[in-house]
Amino acid sequence: MDQINADMREAEKNLTGMEKCCGLCVLPCNKGASFKEDEGTWKGNDDGKVVNNQPQRVMDDRNGLGPQGGYIAKITNDAREGEMEENMGQVNTMIGNLRNMAIDMGSELENQNRQIDRINRKRYDQNIRVQ
């Protein structure tokens, strides 16, 4: 879009030069409406950084165990209860990872929506300029 904008500026400059009488003075009858573009649309550093790699899988231990006594109440203190406690800990870690991934995806979607809005503003400006 930025290259199209630069090409359109150059084409408008050349057309203005062609409208001059013998290349010297502007004819009043050929005076057309000039396009006023919004410079805020074309500023350069709003797109953010290019992503070169994707986030890696992270085992998140900051969620830790649930309550102080664990996830289940120990009744018989056998191996099955220990295994259930371990499984619940793993489920808690996985749910925490899913939560963190959802938060990261939400922030990435917000960034991409801002970029899409900026591209749409550029497209709108170009459509007006071409008409």
From TrEMBL:
Question: Per its UniProt record, what Pfam families does this chain match?
Answer: SNAP-25 (PF00835)
What InterPro entries has UniProt attached to this entry?
Answer: SNAP-25_dom (IPR000928), T_SNARE_dom (IPR000727)
Q: Does the keyword Coiled coil apply?
A: yes
Q: Name one GO molecular function term.
A: syntaxin binding
Please report the stretch or stretches of sequence annotated as the T-SNARE coiled-coil homology domain.
Answer: 78-131
Primary location group: other
Q: Keyword Zinc: yes or no?
A: no
- One GO location term (cellular component): presynapse
Give the residue ranges for region: Disordered. Answer: 40-71
One of this protein's GO BP terms?
Answer: synaptic vesicle fusion to presynaptic active zone membrane
- Tell where it localizes: Synapse, Synaptosome
Compositional bias per record (Basic and acidic residues), positions renumbered to this chain: 40-49
Q: Which UniProt keywords apply?
A: Coiled coil, Repeat, Synapse, Synaptosome
Q: Could you say which protein family the record assigns here?
A: Belongs to the SNAP-25 family.
What's the protein name?
Answer: Synaptosomal-associated protein
Highest classification ranks of the organism = Eukaryota, Metazoa, Ecdysozoa, Arthropoda, Hexapoda
